[in-house]
DNA sequence: CTGAAAGCGCTAACAC
DNA sequence: GTGTTAGCGCTTTCAG
């Protein structure tokens, strides 16, 4: 049975009007008599008609240059990471609340980004948000040529001429260094996520810079791959040395939790008694009673609202210059840094 | 500047062929000379042309009834929950690997599902996957009428005539009860997620059934809202009673972790010394050294593969009867149940 | 193997 | 206010 879906022509016929009347009935500001609209809407409801969004975007495409597929493409890596899961959840809600739909791509590494971008462009998404991944110069140009606004979330956009919303990584590293120095630590280790990415590097640089001011260097560098397991292994390596670090700063909370669990359960070391520990992000698990991890919080709600606002604004009025916004992280004092807890003097 | 995007006509002109030749060059099986195709593809690459997926789906729409937008709609609740984040991550990867794109909707409660469904239908998605949410009889009919296959993941589909992939909740509850009874527990409490949902109810029922066989009843019922905080509060309530439960079965790991942290850090109670604890799902955090939570594992990789396979199969060959698959959970013995650890005799 | 031509379902001028 | 008429960019017969 060729179950062709019901179109505006079917409704037109049934309601005894022209097809364009049906179209108008479904377009908010369109010139149409209230009574006509009502009748059409009734017939439509009865016959289970819904305007075809694809066809709609096809025809309005020509209008001016903004294509109005009604979709924004989102590219994300490591969705299983709680930090990203939260981020996507917020993006999704904000976008939906403003009437936009999200076409989601997950990529496993940076090289896949271009492919995802291409697919997204084929769908004529009205805008693209890229989470924690780089954008090639080439694709940045392609997007600009198409007039598709791009938002780099959690990554800088130097020389790319696209929007970006990010946390102040360098500053965050300094804040962490500060509190650790205040607590009197001298052998401070750093656990990177991916040592090659900008985020991790910025945090490391901030730490190093602040330590240098006291004539110190980062005591040890480790890599934790942005995962709990990676953090745990880094912690094991760090604390198995004859000369142990007396403090650890991790580029993310998940890794810091890995270090904490490793120290506590594999090695019998306790924070802040035996070492101080500080993370980055402030994921929910950081606040669990058994963790109480001191960390640098990213104001993700505000950051995402800003990112979505920029993107929506640019979809509505194209050809704006790209905007770059940076947010500061806030030190959240909990119990893993010596002498600096919520209940300390 | 009216930056119209480059179309197949532009390529046709530049390559000195007809527009339909360009179309054929981009359609795998189409009749076209290899040399012609190559030339076209080159020109296209040079001019940065990509076929417009929207337009493509518009025209192939008529074909037969399967609309081929190339998108599958996914509706999810509580994306911030690690369990769902993982699930979505896997769905996304599998779908992408098979060339499908994911239009994602997050909903905050069951009543929003119908709205999301409507939006999805407007985009003519080729199929719909609903995670842990119910489907109204009405929308089930609408989808069937349109010929859009629907997959209920983690929810049953009685009388709905749609596909479903789910875990054996009742059986899982029994397994939990079994191991707890073996350990000699008698005052076994249950922490529900949402006491009204089928998932939680199934697990509770399995527990109750097994206990009844020993002449026991569920000692106490609590609700944890499927969150860590909810679990923690439930734990606090449970263990503050004069007569404490000696074991707790939680409808999800996150809640079980809440109970564990509450007991350990708020109350000074330790598992399995003072009580036994068992969760459901086997999220990564359950295996963290400081947790080592005994739990019922959902084989989510297999489950998702199955769900995706069914959905893809039905998109390719429509009008199949709906399929329902149930998976069994596996008991993962770790250290929170008395006398039943990986290292126990 | 290739080009011409007819739509897919809708929106947006343009007349009436 | 309403109907008529072109397209949006592509796929797909249908001739040649």
Automatic annotation (TrEMBL), chains A, B:
<keyword id="KW-0678">Repressor</keyword>
<dbReference type="Pfam" id="PF13377">
    <property type="entry name" value="Peripla_BP_3"/>
</dbReference>
<feature type="domain" description="HTH lacI-type">
    <location>
        <begin position="6"/>
        <end position="60"/>
    </location>
</feature>
<keyword id="KW-0804">Transcription</keyword>
<keyword id="KW-0805">Transcription regulation</keyword>
<dbReference type="InterPro" id="IPR028082">
    <property type="entry name" value="Peripla_BP_I"/>
</dbReference>
<dbReference type="InterPro" id="IPR010982">
    <property type="entry name" value="Lambda_DNA-bd_dom_sf"/>
</dbReference>
<dbReference type="InterPro" id="IPR000843">
    <property type="entry name" value="HTH_LacI"/>
</dbReference>
<dbReference type="Pfam" id="PF00356">
    <property type="entry name" value="LacI"/>
</dbReference>
<dbReference type="InterPro" id="IPR046335">
    <property type="entry name" value="LacI/GalR-like_sensor"/>
</dbReference>
<protein>
    <submittedName>
        <fullName>Substrate-binding domain-containing protein</fullName>
    </submittedName>
</protein>
<dbReference type="GO" id="GO:0003700">
    <property type="term" value="F:DNA-binding transcription factor activity"/>
</dbReference>
<keyword id="KW-0238">DNA-binding</keyword>
<dbReference type="GO" id="GO:0000976">
    <property type="term" value="F:transcription cis-regulatory region binding"/>
</dbReference>
């Amino acid at each position: 049975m060729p179950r062709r879906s019901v179109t505006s022509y079917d409704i037109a016929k049934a309601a005894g009007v022209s097809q364009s009347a049906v179209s108008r009935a479904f377009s908010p500001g369109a010139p149409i008599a209230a009574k006509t609209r009502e009748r059409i809407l009734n017939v439509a409801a009865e016959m289970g008609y819904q305007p075809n969004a694809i066809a709609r975007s096809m025809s309005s495409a020509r209008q001016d240059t903004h294509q109005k597929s009604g979709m924004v493409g989102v590219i994300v890596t490591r969705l299983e990471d709680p930090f990203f899961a939260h981020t996507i959840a917020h993006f999704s809600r904000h976008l939906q609340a403003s009437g936009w739909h999200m076409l989601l791509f997950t990529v496993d590494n940076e090289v896949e980004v271009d492919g995802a971008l291409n697919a997204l462009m084929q769908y004529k998404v009205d805008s693209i948000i890229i989470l924690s991944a780089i954008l090639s110069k080439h694709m940045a140009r392609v997007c600009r040529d198409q007039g598709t606004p791009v938002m780099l979330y959690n990554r800088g956009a130097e020389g790319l001429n696209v929007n970006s919303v990010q946390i102040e990584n360098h500053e965050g590293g300094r804040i962490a260094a500060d509190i650790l120095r205040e607590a009197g630590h001298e052998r401070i280790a750093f656990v990177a996520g991916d040592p090659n990415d900008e985020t991790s590097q910025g945090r490391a640089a901030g730490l190093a810079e602040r330590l240098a001011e006291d004539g110190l260097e980062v005591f040890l560098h480790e890599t934790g791959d942005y995962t709990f397991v990676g953090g745990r292994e880094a912690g094991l390596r760090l604390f198995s040395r004859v000369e142990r670090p007396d403090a650890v700063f991790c580029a993310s909370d998940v890794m810091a939790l890995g270090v904490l669990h490793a120290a506590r359960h594999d090695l019998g070391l306790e924070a802040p008694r035996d070492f101080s520990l500080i993370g980055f992000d402030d994921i929910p698990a950081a606040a669990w009673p058994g963790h109480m991890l001191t960390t640098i919080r990213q104001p993700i709600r505000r950051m995402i609202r800003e990112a979505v606002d920029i993107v929506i604004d640019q979809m509505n009025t194209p050809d704006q210059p790209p905007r770059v916004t940076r947010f500061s992280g806030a030190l959240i004092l909990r119990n893993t840094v010596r002498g600096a807890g919520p209940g300390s003097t």
